[in-house]
Design brief:
29% helix; Rossmann fold; binds zinc ion; two-stranded antiparallel sheet; globular; 8 strands; alpha/beta; 199 residues
Length: 199
């Protein structure tokens, strides 16, 4: 990624949510950069604005107003809540059970045929969004679309329903055995484990 001109990515720069360093991604690959959405979403005014923008983007790809927004916990909860606020819908979230399966807990439910959208902070492979889509479909909802603030897949992630993101980018990533930062002897960190981000 180069210096963004995009207003959404600019917000990540402003809030220190665009981290530079040497990171081990969930995929196991190493990357010199990482987007930590929680650092943008800690500011309610930014969360509300991004939620309104994502709601507007979702409206463009759906033919019906969603009545429920579902997000995977933890990362999707805040942005899902703000999208629901903008859509006048309710916000629910899924969690993993002991076996790792994505399920609705806490008494959350959907009505048969209820129009739903799935919202996440960052889509990387699309895996968790796809799991939420499947969870809601199995519970009887009609999932219209999915959305995220950031799409790190370069637009490639498939989630089984139409998908939209406020910013799409391709993150530089290297397998650990062929990582230039490892060769320089720079210690690798797991995103989120650094106390102070270097923006
Ligand atoms: Zn490395």
């Amino acid at each position: 990624m180069s210096e963004p001109k995009d207003p959404v990515l600019d917000l990540f720069f402003q809030t220190g949510a665009y981290l530079k360093g040497h990171f081990r991604l969930t995929s196991g690959q190493h990357s010199p950069e990482y987007l930590q959405c929680a650092l943008v979403l800690q500011y309610p005014e930014h969360a509300e604005k991004l939620g309104a923008q994502l709601a507007a983007a979702l409206k463009k790809i759906t033919d019906q107003a969603p009545r429920v927004v579902a997000s995977p916990a933890l990362g999707g909860v805040i942005i899902g809540h703000e999208v629901a606020r903008a859509l006048g819908a309710r916000a629910i979230f899924t969690e993993r059970d002991a076996s790792g399966k994505m399920i609705l807990r806490r008494g959350f439910s959907v009505e048969p045929g209820e129009a739903a959208v799935v919202v996440e902070d960052v889509v990387t492979t699309g895996g968790s969004t796809r799991e939420v889509v499947e969870c809601l479909t199995a519970a009887g909802a009609r999932v219209l679309a999915a959305g995220s603030i950031i799409d790190r897949s370069g637009g490639r992630a498939e989630v089984g329903v139409p998908r939209v993101a406020l910013a799409t980018l391709t993150v530089t990533a290297h397998p650990p055995e062929d990582c230039p930062l490892c060769r320089e002897g720079i210690p690798v960190t797991k995103p989120g484990s650094r106390p102070t981000p270097v923006a």
